[in-house]
Specification:
The chain has 18 helices and 14 strands. The radius of gyration is 26 Å and the shape is globular. It has a six-stranded parallel sheet with strand order 9-8-12-13-7-14, sandwiched between helices. About 21% of the residues have low confidence. 37% of the residues are buried. It is of the alpha/beta class.
């Protein structure tokens, strides 16, 4: 138990005289520090209820996320959506047992008497009323601090409203009477011809997933594009934006964002490089002659490209510069809020967030609520990488739910699987690692070209392997290049081929120790 959790436990015990409540609050605090939105205090009679869509009475909230999982492991409990009775109930597929950072809690809070006592506490609500309580205990035994519970409630309502193509008041949670639906007047013939042109020259089968993703995303108010490294997510986004611009008028505004400054820089570079490469390829095929196609008549937002709106003008409208999500929202740290919110929405009709797996629960809620009612949101990322520092793993939750049978999120999600990079064989290894199939990993590695497996189970063996690695001729090449300050760029390029990845950070097997040893060896060699 952390120092903060222990201090809160003592404070709650002093205020309420309830040992169970004090322990539950402490465990919820530690859970949030581990990336959980809540702590699971009990197991239901039919097992852990995770990653499911439940069928509830119409009086229930329109949608609720119950996120109880650590965002690193896909075996952790992910997202639970409760939808109105109007949404078809879904079968409960097989579920893996959750990874709980707080397994010991069951020994402190009795599953029957303890939970019953917690529910009687004035500080604890069940989330079914508008009354604000410091804590929320669901009927499934998930114990929330109010803040995270509210974030999930509001975020789920807003996302499900976008999936349902209805506008929901972000404060009241009710359907806006003036805008109960979103007509999306997409010219499907124009969209199909544009996709065919933008993917001309690419292998039809290999690019099938990207084509289908673009066709599905254009016109949606919410779309989730996921995939592992090298599957072409940025390539797909580039073509998706071009197709969207072809369907809309010149005032259609697009914003590109990412959770961190570094991720935003990578997105900007990828967009610039991809834009230049694609424009050059299309120019060589006479794209101006293929830019025709009249869609529905303009109605403000919905104004497809006309025959004289050539591809060069569409490319000119394509944004290149990305910014952080916090900068996009207008972070006001001194006031602990953002400049853009439901009352002051973003001025963009489309917002694309790359590396969305790093966006935590609170930030995602702020982003979604800051969107204009008719704006669209595209979330892009790998649900198995780059998790958020704070509580929540919204992207992984959405992907998990979208993959279930008859999920209402399925039409709003696409997962790219084909790996375009040369290391395609390694993609199978990565997938096996994610699934925890160790034996298959070793067999697959044996089939990868230029890959050698050297078991290292002793520090002496590790030292031998490290020495052998440092004797590779590439190191001499690197030192020769780096001796001239004008070759700094070339030196960094050379360094990319000499990288050592460690599973640990600290200790004799960790990255810090090995980096120190490598640095010492290179200094000795360089004199």
């Amino acid at each position: 138990m952390s120092a903060l959790a222990d201090a809160l436990r003592e404070w709650v015990l002093q205020k309420t005289a309830s040992h169970d409540l004090a322990r539950a609050v402490a465990m919820a605090v530690d859970a949030e520090a581990e990336g959980h939105a809540c702590a699971r205090l009990a197991v239901s009679g039919d097992g852990l209820d995770i990653a499911r869509i439940f069928h509830e009475p119409a009086t229930a909230a329109a949608a609720r996320f119950h996120h109880a999982g650590h965002p690193v492991a896909r075996s952790a409990p992910v997202c639970q959506l409760d939808v109105e009775q109007t949404t078809p109930s879904l079968p409960n597929g097989p579920r893996t047992a959750p990874r709980r950072a707080l397994d010991g809690l069951a020994t402190h809070v009795h599953e029957t008497s303890g939970l019953a006592a917690l529910r009687e506490q004035p500080w604890v609500g069940d989330g079914t009323t508008d009354a604000i309580t410091p804590c929320v205990l669901t009927d499934r035994g998930d114990f929330y601090l109010w803040r995270n519970w509210r974030h999930e409630q509001r975020l789920a309502q807003a996302l499900m409203a976008r999936v349902s193509q209805v506008a929901v008041d972000p404060v009241e949670g009710s359907v806006a009477a003036s805008d109960r639906s979103w007509p999306d007047s997409i010219d499907l013939d124009l969209l199909a011809s544009d996709i065919e042109l933008l993917y001309a020259g690419m292998d039809a089968e290999a690019s099938r997933g990207q084509r289908e993703a673009v066709a599905a995303a254009v016109g949606k108010r919410l779309f989730v594009l996921s995939g592992g490294p090298g599957t072409g997510k940025t390539t797909t986004v580039l073509r998706l934006l071009l197709c969207w611009l072809r369907q809309r008028g010149p005032d259609f505004s697009i914003a590109l964002a990412a959770p961190t400054g570094k991720a935003a820089q990578r997105l900007s570079k990828s967009m610039r490089d991809g834009k230049a490469e694609l424009l050059a390829a299309l120019t060589s095929t006479g794209l101006g002659e293929q830019a025709g196609g009249n869609g529905p008549a303009s109605d403000g937002d919905h104004c497809p490209a006309s025959s004289d709106d050539d591809w060069q003008s569409v490319f000119a409208r394509l944004p290149e510069a990305a910014q952080t999500v916090h900068r996009l929202l207008g972070s006001l740290p001194a006031e602990d809020r953002f400049r853009h919110d439901a009352d002051h929405p973003l001025p963009h009709q489309l917002v694309v967030v790359d590396e969305a797996s790093m966006v935590d629960l609170a930030t995602m809620r702020a982003l979604v609520e800051a969107l204009a009612p008719r704006a669209a949101l595209v979330l892009v990322g790998d649900p198995d990488q780059l998790v958020s520092v704070s509580a929540g793993s919204v992207l992984a939750d959405l992907v998990e739910v979208a993959e279930r049978d008859h999920s209402p999120l399925a039409p709003h999600s696409a997962q790219l699987r084909f790996v375009w990079r040369a290391e395609q064989e390694l993609a199978h290894v990565f997938d096996l690692v994610r699934r925890g199939e160790a034996d298959k990993v070793l067999r697959q590695l044996a089939s990868v070209e230029d890959c050698a497996w050297h078991p290292v189970d002793q520090l002496a063996v590790l030292s031998e392997r490290l020495t052998a690695w440092l004797e590779r001729p590439e190191w001499d090449d690197l030192l020769g290049i780096a001796s001239n300050p004008e070759n700094a760029s070339r030196a960094f390029d050379q360094l990319r081929s000499l990288q050592l990845l460690c599973a640990l950070r600290a200790g004799q097997w960790g990255a810090t120790e090995l980096a120190s040893r490598i640095d010492q060896a290179l200094r000795q060699r360089a004199g």
